[in-house]
Amino acid sequence: MPEFDALAAVIARYAPTDGSHETPIPNLFVYRASHPTEPAHVLHEPAFCIVAQGRKEVELNGVTYPYDSSTALVLSVDLPIVGRVIEATPEKPYLGAKLSLCPRALNAMLIEHRLDQREGPSDVALSVAPTPAEVSDAFARLVGLLDAPNDIAALAPLAEREILYRLLTGAFAARIRQIALADGRINQVSRAIDWIKRNFNQPFRIDAVCSAANMSPSSLHAHFKSVTSMSPLQYQKQLRLQEARRLIVSNARDAATAGHDVGYDSPSQFSREYRRLFGAPPIRDAARLREGPAELSIG
C-alpha cells in the first residue's frame, strides 16, 4: 500500500542500523532488523505497534500473535512477552514503529469528547487486528514529521491526538479504553502489576498484592490471569528471570549471584527455571547472546 511504502521510507532513514531508535517525537520509537531475529524477552509497556515492512510475531504465555503491515499490535498493560522478527532481509529489512500510550491522555480524550467510557473485555490485554486506514494514515503523518523537525513541536501533538481518537473510536476501542479508565478492573490488575514490578525480588505476598489492587485473592487470581494469561506468581517469575538474564549477559553478575539478586534462594531451582524459559542454562544462554546478533526490542 502506498502509505506503508512512504512510512517504510521514513522509518528506514531514522532507523539506519538494526535495533530500536528513539526519535525527536515523544513516545515514538522506530525499529529495523535486517534478518530474522532471536526471540527477545521483554516487559512491554502499553503501546500501539505498527509494521511498515516485514513480519513479526509476539508470544504471551505460549500463545503466538503474528502481525505485519495489514495488522497492528496493541497492549493495554505491562506484559512480559517474547517477540521476534520472522521476515526480513538486508535488501528488504523489517521496519516498524511503536507509540507508547499514556493513560492520562487517553482518559482526557474520553472525557473531552464524551466517548464511551465502559471498560473493554477482560480477556488478555494484548490484541492483533487489522489496521484501520484512518489509523495508518494518521500514524504515517506522525512519523512523516521526522522529516520536518521544525514542525514537530506544533504538529506532533495534533497527529498523536488524532491517532488516540481513532484508536478510541475504532476497532481497537475496547482494548484502548482499558488503558484509560482509572477505576476499571484492568486498572486494578495494573496496580497489582506495579506492586510486583517494585517487589519482584522479594518473597511473593498475596495479601500485599491484593491490597494494592483492592481485590480479594480469588478475584485477583481470576482477573489477573484473564488479563495477562498468567498468575501473579508466574508474572513475578518472568520478571525475575528477565532481570537475571540481563545481569548475566551484561557481565554485571555471575549466574549464582544473579539468581540470588532477583530472589532465588536455590541455585538449582534458578538454573532449572531459567533453562525452561530461555532454552539453555544461564552461562550457555549468555554466551550465545554475546556471540550472536543482538535481540530486537519489541516494536
Automatic annotation (TrEMBL):
Alphabetical keyword list: Transcription, Transcription regulation
UniProt keyword Transcription regulation present: yes
Residue ranges occupied by any HTH araC/xylS-type domain in the UniProt entry: 190-288
Keyword Transcription: yes
Domain of life assignment: Bacteria
First and last residue of the signal peptide: none
A Pfam cross-reference name: AraC_N
GO MF, any single term: DNA-binding transcription factor activity
UniProt cross-references to PANTHER family, sorted A to Z: ARAC-FAMILY TRANSCRIPTIONAL REGULATOR (PTHR43436), TRANSCRIPTIONAL REGULATORY PROTEIN (PTHR43436:SF1)
Name assigned to this protein: AraC family transcriptional regulator
